[in-house]
Specification:
Blueprint (H helix, E strand, L loop, with lengths): L1 E6 L2 E3 L3 E2 L5 H12 L3 E6 L6 H9 L12 E2 L2 E3 L15 E3 L3 H11 L5 E4 L7 H14 L4 E3 L2 H5 L1 H11 L2 E2 L6 H11 L9 H4 L13 E4 L2 E2 L10 H5 L3 E2 L2 H13 L4 E4 L10 H8 L7 E8 L6 H9 L2 E9 L4 H4 L6 H13 L7 E7 L6 H14 L2 E6 L7 H8 L17 H4 L6 H15 L1
Parallel strand pairs: 1-4, 1-8, 8-9, 9-10, 11-14, 14-15, 15-16, 16-17, 17-18
Antiparallel strand pairs: 2-7, 3-5, 6-7, 12-13
Helix pairs in contact: 10-11, 12-14, 15-18
Length: 449
Amino acid sequence: MRILLINPWICDVAAYDFWLKPLGILYVGAILERWGVEVELLDFMDRHSPFYVSFLENSGLRIRQGRYGSGKFYHEELFPPPPQLQGIPRRFKRYGWPRKIAEERVRKIIRRFDAVFITSCMTYWYWGIVETVKLIKEICNLPIFLGGIYVNLVEWHARSLGKEHGFEVVKGVGVAPVIEAMRKLTGYEYSGDFDWFEDLHPAYHLYNHSLPYGVLMTSVGCPMRCTYCITPRLWGGLKSKKAKKVIYEVDMLIDMGAENIVFFDDAFLLNPDVDEVLDLLAKYAGKVRFLLPNGVHARLLTMELACKLKRANFVLIYLGYESSGSLQYKTGGKVTDEDLKKAVHNLKKAGYGPEEIKVYIMVNMPGQRKEDVEKAIEFCENLDVDYSLNEYTPIPGTLDWVGLVKEGKLDPDVDPLLLNNSVLPYWWEHGMDVETIEKLKRIKNRRLR
Ligand code: SF4
């Protein structure tokens, strides 16, 4: 049995490679290999693939590279945009490999396979799946299975898309959806008698080329219940990896050339082994940089942990703050102003400069006033740390989502394309309008000049 794994394009009005790697499908690869299935990977979002790089060079295109291996994606505009987005004054694009390159790669290898497994992420990126499936269907008629976050959050939509475009949907996380897809494909019940997260490692070797950065997770899930976050519902609690397994994966990425290793846990500091992980990572200082771009819990960032992060050469630490004012409590109480102040103090004492600490602020949360965002900005500026303004969107299945549907402020059957955080303010009448959001963003831009 041979399976082709595909990480599909992203279709959006904006996208940037802030260390995006399809960890889910890399674990699927590891699970399949454990069963003796032969797998290959086509990652349409891989900026370091030799095919993509030589296409850019031959076309004389220079795409801007960012810090620590991040960078811009190549894109092609999709015109006209999907009908749902007509009237929204933003250009809709397909990010990642040029279509020509993706088509060439699929045509060249597809005959070797019995089926295609595709992963999914944000619900509002589903157009990338449509584009990917259309490309495969133009070339062959292999069975296609789709799993991932989009399927888990809006299963009804994924199933109807599957009917329309001819693919099967498998729901769930971990090994269960892979067992289901293989059962449908072969009629055989594969065994899930292993811990996919602890016993397996993401199958990075499927890239077949060096990578300037790699992404890992020392845990999945979170025991907290913030109203805007889907993580607790998706994973049903915290599942963590032992320190020595984390170190094995770090070595694996270093062997592949990674100079930047990014931890994308939702609750990195809640891993019971976090102290040991950081102590062990210290041996790589000078050899590799570590990054925490997913907003760690400020309340847990003690002086001791801040010193360990510094010793291990963590060069970028994002803290989750989201909003000032009463919303901090109303949304779950994960952080207060005092928590953030202490965390920043500890990081600075440990030797971090203002440009190495970044605070996430959300804009357009339900019930959030413009003044809440302005105060949050002012608070960060007084702490002398950088901040990032992120536009909010209600994620299907979160407590916010349930509340908004109940209050009649959101149609539960809304097309996920309209939930794109850059698109939401153009049509949703229960949040901030585009102009207010732009004004808030300009505060930062003005101060940067
Ligand atoms: S926002 Fe962070 S703390 Fe809150 S539930 Fe999600 S992962 Fe946990």
